[in-house]
Amino acid sequence: MERLYIEGTKSTPEIDFDPSKNNLKISGQSYPENAFKFYEPIFQWVDDYIKDIQGELLIEIEFKMPYINSSSSKCIIMLLDKFQDAFDEGKDIIINWYYDEENESTIECAEEFKEDLSLPFNLLDSGR
Amino acid sequence: MNNNLLELQNILKENNIIISFSGKFYQGIIEELGEAIKNRMEDEETPKNDMYNVFSIYIEQSQNIRNYILCKKNSNKYNKIENSGIVCISKKDSEYCISSGNVIENEDINTLIEKLDIIKVMNKDELKKFYKAELKKEPAKDSLGAGVGLIDIARKASKPLEYSFRKIDDNLSFFQLQAIV
Description:
The complex is a heterodimer of chains A (128) and B (181).
Chain A (H helix, E strand, L loop, with lengths): L3 E3 L7 E5 L4 E5 L7 H18 L5 E7 L5 H19 L3 E8 L4 H12 L5 E5 L3
Parallel strand pairs in A: 3-4, 4-5, 5-6
Antiparallel strand pairs in A: 1-2, 2-3
Helix pairs in contact in A: 1-2
Chain B lengths: L4 H10 L2 E7 L3 H17 L4 H24 L6 H4 L3 E8 L2 E11 L3 H12 L3 H14 L10 H9 L5 E6 L4 E9 L1
Helix pairs in contact in B: 2-3, 3-7, 6-7
């Protein structure tokens, strides 16, 4: 599996999915003109990656997103659902969601995503 | 030469407008203006919560305008719609007002009123549930995201949204939406 790296812009987060470390990172604001178009190759990569996982590996997914617009939220839900499905099939997956204490919407939005999932979902203060 | 700039500036001042853009909305302009809004609010040491609420209302409003323009590409009224967008952010005391306006086709008014009327009477908890349900319902592929954007604006605003439609002619009206933080 090749590493997936997409450089961040003002309206799209940096994507750094490194299969050699089993670590997937998304960091930055997300409000592209067409969210689905931006996230589609990421969905594809994640589908292939999950299919490819061999043996018992702990996969860590890290979110550091100060702002997510409504159409990107839809895509983040779709992404989280993919991880939830993999978890339900027995894969070892944890989500680490970094919030900003001063920006309450980052906590609220993470809690709302978390509500519908049963995989390990940690809310962590990015200031610490 | 246009000698009305001073008058225009005075109108902006009288209305406490700190940032405004009028014309054709592109993603690039939306991003630049968004950064400018955040920088300005950081300079004024605005609390981060307020800053991100203002920023996200502005983003949803301006992307709604942008999406409307895109979906009217084949309309015979396109030339009247294309450049009709405006967004203004004003500040009075510690209250920010984010207003947007654009020309829409009269046939779209009813759908919009229906959506806004549902949202208008909801409290924060109802808005949250409605937002989540709509996010899951909406097909991601073809949708340009409008609809949930309005719910998100209502969630981030500290007062109920205000809106109006001003008739231009038999085919077109000017839609204005205002949110307070």
